[in-house]
Each structure stands twice: as C-alpha cells, then as structure tokens.
Design goal:
Radius of gyration: 18 Å
Structural class: mainly alpha
Oligomer: single chain
Shape: globular
C-alpha cells in the first residue's frame, strides 16, 4: 500500500478501512451465536479494539488533561511517559525484526498529539455514518509513485 501524502488522503484511507471493518463485522455478526469460539472471540476483539476503545479514548485524554491542570500532574505525566516508553520499546523491537532503521522513533510522541486525535474522529465519523445507514463513496488516493 502506498502511504497517503496528505492529511486529507490519510483521512479518506483510514475512514475507508474503519468503515470496511464495521461492514465486515456486520456481515459476519451471525458468528457471534454460531457454534465455536472463533467468531465470538474475533468479532469481540474487533469490536473492543477497533470500535469501543477508540470511542472512549477521547474521554480518557480529556480526563488526563483535567488531571494535569487541576490535580497533581506528576502521576498523569508519569503514566503517559510510561506508555510512550512501552510503545518506543515495542516499536524499536518491531523495526529491529524488520531490519529497519530505529531513527524514525523520534516521531512517536507526536503520534499522541496528531494521529490519535485524527483516528478518534475517523472512528466517530465511521460509526455515525454506519449507524445512519449512509453508504460510503469509494475514493481512491492520488498515487505519487513514492515509497518509504
């Protein structure tokens, strides 16, 4: 997959992916009641990690900001730094397994302030669109011919 080169293209791509995940979950919803645990576990996992938690994540961020502004900021900042450290270590390990440069990890803290918020909006938009029954138009990203 060629990486999107603009924020608008990234929005369209992630919206398409999220909406497609919701469609696949809806299409296979019968697996929740069919015999066997694969469907229940798989759909439960998708529902939890692709829909429910991303919908609640903005609330957690607002509570964290509130904790920093009103309460003792040290525990909130320590937990945030701990999560960034765990992400950095797992990212470093993944890059090492793929024999890629680990120097790209410097942008990881920026992910917390840009990409996460974009994904909140994408998930909220996709869920609202799906609940309202609006069919998503197919949009392709403009190909630049550059690969990272």
């Amino acid at each position: 997959t060629e990486a999107p080169t603009s924020l608008a293209q990234l929005w369209r791509q992630r919206s398409r992916w999220c909406y497609g995940t919701l469609q696949a979950m809806w299409k296979h919803r019968g697996a929740l009641v069919e015999r066997g645990t694969f469907g229940r576990r798989g759909l439960g996992y998708l529902a939890l990690f692709q829909v429910v938690l991303p919908l609640f994540a903005p609330v957690v961020d607002v509570m964290a900001v509130y904790g920093v502004l009103v309460g003792d900021p040290l525990p909130v900042v320590a937990v945030w730094a701990g999560f960034v450290l765990v992400q950095a270590l797992t990212g470093w390990y993944a890059l090492r397994l793929d024999r890629e440069r680990a120097s790209v990890l410097w942008v990881l803290p920026l992910q917390q302030f840009v990409y996460r918020q974009l994904m909140y909006l994408v998930v909220i938009h996709s869920v609202v669109t799906a609940v309202l029954g609006v069919r998503l138009r197919w949009q392709t990203i403009r190909r630049e011919g550059t690969f990272a």
